[in-house]
Design brief:
Structural class: alpha+beta
Radius of gyration: 17 Å
Number of domains: 1
Shape: globular
CATH class: Alpha Beta
Order of helices and strands: EHHEHEEEEEHEHHEHEHEEEE
CATH architecture: 4-Layer Sandwich
CATH superfamily: Endonuclease/exonuclease/phosphatase
Distance between the termini: 7 Å
Strand order of the largest sheet: 3-4-2-1-14-13
Length: 255
């Protein structure tokens, strides 16, 4: 199975670009999307060319045209659930879980702490509660969780670590601690598993020609239950796919 995760920064905007042809070329079995910025109906309308996929979407209740996630799957999942079951966290359409025979696949759009770091405290609570949610699922079968985690984990994960450390959202120590908790509690960063020191990024600011200069951040991940890592045969970042300020990340699994 080929699994893709892509923060599209607006599904209606990106489908007016090369998104459809790009995704047909990639030909993934499952495509997970974040920041769709649309209602469930709008997502399905925007994805009408993906007739070979079952499409599931989660929308923000609190702010229209904000946040949102989707899963497109050629294989019909056994079950699909939305949100964590925690009211505080379930207003922005940030989580979808699709159950397959061998694993749970969760797509997530983790809250950004914000340029003024106004949501940093909330973000820490989110990380802790989301980890508990994943570990509860993991008691039944392995989990594969993918999406925009809005944090660069280590110095190797962003082009300019020193000027950003403890100054910029996405590289605050509290956010790094959150990712440390995921990886220390048995969730393996699949890209780093295969590429321990590779400097490859998945997000670039629109400012200052950052993408052309490759001044980027790796903030999009596939985290996989330790027990499931032997099933993962490849992990990559598809830097040649454009259309968003992010690019897709990918794993291939044998199931």
């Amino acid at each position: 199975m080929k699994l893709i995760s892509f923060n599209v920064n607006g599904i209606r905007a990106i489908t007016k670009k090369d998104f459809v042809s790009d995704m047909k070329k990639v030909n993934a079995d499952v495509i997970c999307l974040q920041e769709t910025k649309a209602t469930e109906e709008q997502v399905k309308e925007a994805l009408k060319d993906f007739s070979e996929y079952h499409i599931f979407a989660n929308e923000s209740d609190s702010r229209k045209g904000y946040s949102g996630t989707a899963i497109l799957s050629k294989i019909e999942p056994i079950t699909v659930t939305k949100d964590m079951g925690i009211e505080e966290h379930d207003q922005e359409g940030r989580v979808i879980c699709a159950e397959f025979e061998a694993f749970y696949l969760i797509t997530v759009y983790v809250p950004n702490s914000g340029s003024e770091l106004l949501r940093l405290d909330y973000r820490q609570k989110w990380d802790a509660d989301f980890l508990s949610y994943l570990k509860k699922l993991e008691t039944k079968k392995p989990v594969v969780v993918c999406g925009d985690f809005n944090v660069a984990h280590k110095d190797v994960d962003l082009a300019r670590p020193k000027p950003n450390y403890n100054k910029s959202a996405g590289y605050m120590q509290e956010e790094i601690d959150g990712m440390d908790a995921f990886t220390s509690k048995g969730l393996v960063d699949s890209f780093r598993h295969f590429h321990p020191q590779t400097e490859k990024y998945s997000w670039w600011s629109y400012r200052g020609g950052a993408r052309e200069k490759n001044v980027g951040w790796r903030i999009d991940y596939f985290l996989v239950s330790e027990s499931f890592i032997p099933k993962v045969v490849e992990a990559d970042i598809l830097v040649d796919v454009h259309g968003s300020d992010h690019c897709p990340v990918q794993i291939k699994v044998e199931v």
